[in-house]
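## tool: complex_structure
## caller: assistant
## args:
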Amino acid sequence: METKDTYEKGLKITGAPSLDELHASPCYQLPPKERRALAAVIECIEGIPCNPCETSCPVGAITVGDEITNLPVVDFEKCTGCGICVAACPGLAIYLKKYEFKENLSYIAFPFEYLPLPPEGATVQMVDRYGEYVCDGTVLRVVKIKRMDRTTVVHVSYPNDYYERVVNMKRLPAN
Amino acid sequence: MEEREVVVIGAGPAGLSAALEAARAGAHVLLVDENSKPGGQLFKQIHKFFGSHEHRAGVRGIDIGTQLLEEAERLDIEVWLDAEACGIFNTTDVWIVRNKEKSVTVRAKRIILATGAVENSVNFPGWSLPGVMGAGAAQTMINLHRVLPGQKILMVGSGNVGIIVSYQLLQAGADVKAVVEAAPRLGGYGVHTAKVRRAGVPFYTSHTVLEARGTDHVESATIVQLDDKWKPIPGTEKELDVDTICIAAGLTPLVELAFAAGCEPLYSPLLGGMVPWHDRSMATSIPTIYLAGDISGVEEASTAMEEGRMAGLSAAYSLGYVDRETYAVGFDAAEKRMLALRSGMFGQKRRDAKAAIVGHSRG
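## result:
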């Protein structure tokens, strides 16, 4: 069984970026707890040649720049939390977060390309970067629009205690 | 004997792009493919592609395939399906068997080989049991034929193919029990491994498959840890309850036609093994024969499309269809887009390996 120690070995061993790797990367910024709006969080730390996050952003809040392998950086001053980049990222490496959007509850909107989709109001199992169950969440919205090209974005509230750790939800069993 | 200006062999992303570019320049193009449908591997690629806007980034491979076919139809490109190119003679004559019954020879002024690549196998006790298959085969089953090859998968290999197919198997409703990687570090893009990992799939680096067990199909697999000399470490065996083992151990360029025609070979281990030598314009040592895509070194669909454009444009230019300046502008733009795809920690090695082929002295 893998231990916390294994996790710390990082992206090229476990498949998931460790918090140390994320914190050391200029790309990853967790929105500050006092921020009022949702903001995009990007976990893309390898410098792959890719920039749809930058070109899809309607307000120019994400910068990759002329060198297409630069890491994307979000400007929280400009980011409106609209979520267009979440479905535009081919790597499914972007989600939106906000700390304490309601009493003791944080907010996440993440890309989800599995069926079945959860219904709004459902209780779902939130997972960390290793797919481990962390806590329950409540589905607030399930956004599936044409311009997102079959990538659904699921909006969920979950306890503040797991603000940084939660990144997605468990797949649901087939109907 | 039939005659055509440009014959493109293989209607995948490279061949389609080459045919489109040559036809746009004004050449009469015949595109042949041994399959019943054009598109090569594009119609299996249900994920959104990387790159920038001019690489059609963010668009799913299946939709890029549809766009290319629509364009081919608009340009009135002649397409022969179920047409196997079996040989090239006298640097210009392509022997084609149509519908497995009619043998035709087509004399071409230029030939563009876009034959692609074939999956490598890994052999181990039990590897011939039903249920052991290439990752690409599993991808064909789920995304083209909509058949799940099994419920419990072991993926062998963590390059982008292994990781993307693992993700797509999860999407198709299978349970991926593990991804094993013989190297000490995972191979594919971190964003791909991260989405598979957060779906709960464990990765085992420095591990390989030792044995598949079962009577008439795979019923379990044994994996084992490898030491720093890639030798199994006794006592580290682990039995996994799986019914399917997918092998994603790289690809080898499909070079037979090129070598049978007499194109000069070159060894490029990073790009999949023996490849035909080619210059920057994608011409081989035989000036009438060009290359595009995985046959010239295994990369990815986005690079294959740029190479196709470069080869198609070069072939048309050599036939006098575009003037020097138009050629230079179009070629440089394609090459610039290509270099962007061959940059960064993943792309640089491929860029260097390609430069080594082009720079190889043929004396």
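## assistant note: Helices of chain A lie at 4-7, 11-14, 19-24, 52-56, 84-88. Chain A has five helices and nine strands. Handing back to user.
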